[in-house]
Amino acid sequence: MFNKTIEKNGKELRYGYTTGSCATAATKAALLMYLQQQRQDTVEIMTPKGWALDLVLHDQTFSEKSASCSVIKDSGDDPDVTNGIKIFAKISPAEKAGIEFVAGIGVGTVTSVGLSIPPGQPAINPTPREMITREIETIMADSQINQNNELPKGWQVELSIPQGIELAKRTFNPKLGIEGGLSIIGTSGIVEPMSEEALKASLKLELSVLNARGYKEIIFVPGNYGKNFSEELGLSEAVLVKTSNFIGFMLDEAERMNFEKILIIGHLGKMVKLAGGIFNTHSSVADGRMEILTAYAGLLGADQKTMAKIMASKTTDEATDIILAENLTGYFDYLAEVIRKKVMDRVYQNIDMEVVLFSKIHGFLGQSQAAEKMREQLCIH
After folding, report:
1. CA angle, residues 321, 323, 326, in degrees to nearest 5
2. Which keywords describe this protein according to UniProt (predicted)?
3. Are residues 187 and 241 in the same domain?
4. Domain check: are 118 and 208 in the same one?
5. Dihedral, CA atoms, 367, 211, 208, 206, nearest 10 degrees?
6. pTM to 2 decimals?
7. Residue 195, Cβ neighbours under 10 Å: how many?
8. DSSP state of 152
9. Are residues 89 and 19 in contact, defined by beta-carbon separation less than 8 angstroms?
10. What phi and psi, each to the nearest 5 degrees, are found at residue 86?
């Protein structure tokens, strides 16, 4: 077991290692078994992060034609659908010089532009390809010195993940244009538990794919609630992007990629924070929901007693009950306009944006002035 840890929020969390590291270790071990014609039980690799991994091997087979084995993925304390699955590598000599990567069962194939690998290629990202290539070249350089026998000109590396086809349905891959399985990924070779940067990278990738496909008008939703409500409105899922809590980051990326229009649809509990200029909506970063709802109620004429009741609310749904009962006319449309101004200011007015607010209990609450028109443009046709 890989036992490096990091402390986050007072908890000791264990690092893991990527599918790319698993594929590299399995390939290195398979090549050694092929060249030496003997079993390997463990293998050591160096990750781009500079940490060595000594990994246990499984399913070892070798012959004069090929060799293969597997490594079990360990995601540490990071929630990951690939944790505990086997990554297989099979290596075979090839007549053509160089290294050919092949997608075996459960490893996807890239079918769309906008990713780091061109269409038609196995979904094996650049860093794992570099890691595998480096290990093969190092072993072959040693073999050239230590052996007089003629060695193959090149190698075919086939990577497989038997569970990959099913698990891929629980990832972004189908939406990103990766078909037939999972991707072999990882830039550092190491999985950092609860990594904010890793989540941002995956969210940014969705934007990159839509940009490469030529879309200029898209939908932002913070999470599944927004996604489900968008479906109820009949909006196109093809242009829908989840922002998670990183709405500010995603707005910055959208502006950098020159998107022209964004319809933001979100639950009041998240969206109200934007009205207060809070662009990372995670509760550990900032809250202020009741303060913001109360302030705008006051601006729209709520008396002190009503404001005190809103301020004392435990949830935004409870606060919504009070706002609706007090007949604060146009409150949620007004709030949507405030949010629209905040997000437009964030991108220096370079993207036209509209806002739709809802709650799980009350459904549709309000929207900015031109949101209806933008909704029509983004409906499924």
Report:
1. 105
2. Cobalamin biosynthesis, Methyltransferase, S-adenosyl-L-methionine, Transferase
3. no
4. no
5. 50
6. 0.74
7. 16
8. P
9. no
10. -95, 135
Segment 301-347, tens digit of pLDDT: 999 999 999 999 988 999 999 999 998 989 999 999 999 999 999 99
| Beta-ladder partners of 110 | 178
Distances (CA, A) of 50 to 74, 188, 337: 18, 8, 49
Choose the final residue of a domain: 134, 159, 191.
191
For 259-287, how does the pLDDT look when each residue is reduced to its tens digit (9 = 90+)?
999 999 999 999 999 999 999 998 778 88
215 and 344 fall within a common domain:
yes
Average confidence score pLDDT of the chain: 92
Looking up residue 20, the CATH number of its domain turns out to be: 3.30.2110.10
How many angstroms separate the CA atoms of 308 and 290, rounded? 10
CA 136, chain centre distance (Å): 30
CA distance 164 to 181: 5
Using alpha carbons only, how large is the chain's radius of gyration in Å? Answer: 26
Structural tokens at position 158: 């086939």
Whether 244 and 158 map to the same domain: the answer is: no
Q: Do 9 and 90 reside in the same domain of the chain? A: yes
Distance CA 92, CA 34 (A): 8
Whether 105 and 162 have beta carbons less than 8 Å apart is answered as yes
Residue 196 is which amino acid?
A: E
Residue ranges making up the domain that contains 367: 196-377
Assess whether 133 and 227 both reside in one domain. no
Residue written as tokens 């038997």?
162
- Asked if residue 168 lies in contact with residue 174, where contact means CB atoms within 8 angstroms, the answer is yes
Domain finish residue from 138, 172, 191: 191
Do residue 238 and residue 326 come from a single domain?
yes
Give the angle subtended at the CA of 306 by the CAs of 329 and 338, to the nearest 5°: 50
